[in-house]
Amino acid sequence: xxxxxxxxxxxxxxxxxxxxxxxxxxxxxxxxxxxxxxxxxxxxxxxxxxxxxxxxxxxxxxxxxxxxxxxxxxxxxxxxxxxxxxxxxxxxxxxxxxxxxxxxxxxxxxxxxxxxxxxxxxxxxxxxxxxxxxxxxxxxxxxxxxxxxxxxxxxxxxxxxxxxxxxxxxxxxxxxxxxxxxxxxxxxxxxxxxxxxxx
Length: 199
Hints:
It is a single chain. The chain has 199 residues and is of the alpha+beta class. Helix content is 30%, strand content 25%. It has helices at 18-25, 28-34, 37-48, 73-76, 105-119, 134-142, 170-173; strands at residues 8-12, 54-60, 63-71, 89-95, 125-127, 145-152, 158-164, 187-188, 191-192. The strands form two sheets. It has a seven-stranded mixed beta sheet. Strands 8-9 form a two-stranded antiparallel ribbon.
């Protein structure tokens, strides 16, 4: 069930979603960061029958609008999250429907998804947009992710490591009395944080 204050649902990806996913993956705004649609669909198929990566179709008021997934960075062996706490989940997403770009839909469903992962006892929820994707970095910030260090991914790309801080809305960031504490090693808006508190 969806929370009463959010119109978003998340259902597991099925093979019957192939046609819809290919249409989405072929959209210019998606292909710019996700690559060849056929290759990406093959990667989805490789995980759909029981891999660690949990993939979901996002619905908004029952309309399919996008794709989101969560995965274990330690099992994936990505070097830039080597110091993430055990049980951390990393997220990736795309908004498939171009008419919803710029409407706050992407940041809304990412915030809802990350909140569910934290409620399911993930000690941290992280993401790793490339520096060449400033729109993605800005969207994750609106969703409540705090920018951390710039690190090198397994393919040599520079990525911005980000961690989700529940309740870290733009309004709260503007209020000095509501500055959150960040997980160890994550750089907050004003510099490194030494707190070991994990929210």
